[in-house]
Protein: RNA polymerase-binding protein RbpA
Organism: Micromonospora arida
Amino acid sequence: MPNGNVIRGARVGSAPMRPDERHQPAPRQDVTYWCRNDHRVDIRIAADVEPPPLWDCPRCGLPAGRDAQNPPGRVRAEPYKSHLAYVKERRTAEEGEALLAEALAALRRRRGE
Ligand SMILES: [Zn+2]
């Protein structure tokens, strides 16, 4: 019997995480990063968290650092790739088809078809 656990964690009707009953916004800090292409990246994170030293620039994908005068160099030679591109790198189209067929079979079993 094939493993039917291809699709995880997507229970129909599962409730979203409930915010605190008495909702108080957690303290935040604004952090600015600069990439080598002079893109400014502003992020907002929890105040009690140490900002990560690097942040991927959302515009060009290069790593951005806290020091505007000295942005980090390219740490990886690859250009920016989408999540899908990484998935395609890890799995062939055939593997994708097999996973899809497996997931559909599991779905049909659950529906009693
Ligand atoms: Zn950039």
